[in-house]
Design brief:
mainly alpha
């Protein structure tokens, strides 16, 4: 446990210093501290043993080890039933490096790096240090397991908050996210639908309808994939096999874990009620609620809990953003921040340290 806490403390401290430097317009030194925070987390993820994170044994190590069985890159790509960009990363790692360090390092860097860019972009509305604290307590341990999906989610959020809506760069980043994890297209679709709903007169009603339709549609995804696999085989069949592996490795629904995350919703929801015309509050609260609803929907299909992970990341923006609503004075702001961090620690201690979700304890080095 001390390994994690050392990384959390150092990373949050570096982020806090960077944030203070940005306030003083010292951007060059601030960027150095920010990059140091991202690199420390990425290196910590890279040097971990293969036993840290249950999915590492399923999706990382086997694909790296399989490189030696295929004489050419093309045969490897055709034989591997997984998204192409991850397959390329695994191939390069297995071909030219004797350990999985580079692969694990790059995966974490592509997860925390884009997220940190989002925090930096939103720094005038929220605290970078608080956002990083929440990332490390709520989701960092999860990223050590669900590596590809977390990369795709971070890239989509980066494109959503940091790039122009109709710019080429945004589409390129979204394509990269899709090629890391195909199911990320569902996350992209929901972000697109949300933007459409904002233009409607009865947008709240539209979002309610969309919420119900989304849960229903996502619940039938396993049946749809199975049908496509039976009809067409080939690529569809390979992807269905991968889906079955994901579903069998899922932790399923945990009412306690869902309740803990749901409690963290209270602050942003109250902030939204007080500022209903604020689109930023509305967007964050909508996707945070969607994450909880999808998680509960796992009673219908365990695949829904996997989809909920995409929307969980809005906690990292919605909660820090809501601090403005509780900043009437320094005392109330400090109290709200302490409450958030305290509850996030409780979540980390119960879900990761006690229950060992995602198999991240004990932390061992390669």
């Amino acid at each position: 446990m001390m390994n994690y806490w050392l990384i959390i403390i150092v990373t949050v401290l570096l982020s806090f210093i960077a944030e203070e430097l940005y306030k003083r317009d010292n951007y060059i030194v601030g960027h150095i501290f920010s990059l140091s925070a991202v690199l420390i987390v990425s290196i910590f993820a890279g040097i971990r043993a293969n036993s840290v994170g249950t999915d590492v044994a399923y999706y990382v190590i086997p694909y790296i080890e399989r490189v030696q069985f295929y004489p050419t890159f093309s045969r490897y790509m055709l034989a591997i039933p997984i998204e192409p960009l991850f397959a390329i990363l695994a191939y390069v790692t297995g071909k030219f490096f004797s350990t999985p360090f580079l692969c694990l390092f790059v995966l974490q860097f592509l997860t925390v790096g884009p997220l940190y860019c989002v925090f930096y972009k939103k720094r005038k509305d929220m605290s970078i240090a608080l956002a990083m604290t929440l990332y490390l307590l709520l989701f960092f341990n999860m990223t050590l397991c669900i590596v590809r999906q977390c990369v795709a989610t971070s890239l989509i959020l980066f494109s959503y908050f940091c790039l122009e809506k109709k710019g080429k760069k945004r589409y390129i980043v979204l394509l990269i996210a899709f090629l890391f994890h195909y199911s990320s297209v569902l996350f992209m679709l929901m972000c697109f639908i949300f933007e459409l709903c904002k233009r409607k007169k009865y947008k709240t009603l539209y979002k309610g309808i969309i919420l119900v339709l989304t849960i229903t549609a996502f619940a039938f995804i396993p049946s749809i994939l199975q049908f496509l696999a039976q009809m067409f085989g080939g690529f569809a069949g390979k992807y269905y096999q991968t889906f079955i592996m994901k579903q069998s490795a899922s932790n399923g629904i945990s009412w306690t874990e869902t309740a803990l995350r749901g409690t963290l919703l209270l602050g942003p929801v109250i902030a939204f009620i007080k500022n209903k015309e604020n689109e930023e509050y509305e967007k964050n609260v909508f996707f945070m609620i969607l994450a909880i609803v999808l998680s509960v929907g796992a009673v219908l299909s365990e695949y829904l809990i996997r989809i909920s992970y995409f929307f969980d990341y809005f906690y990292l923006i919605g909660i820090p953003y809501s601090v403005k609503c509780y900043s009437a004075n320094n005392t109330s702001k400090l109290s709200y921040n302490a409450l958030i961090v305290g509850f996030a620690f409780l979540y980390w201690f119960i879900v990761y340290n006690t229950w060992n979700y995602f198999g991240v304890f004990p932390y061992l080095i390669q």
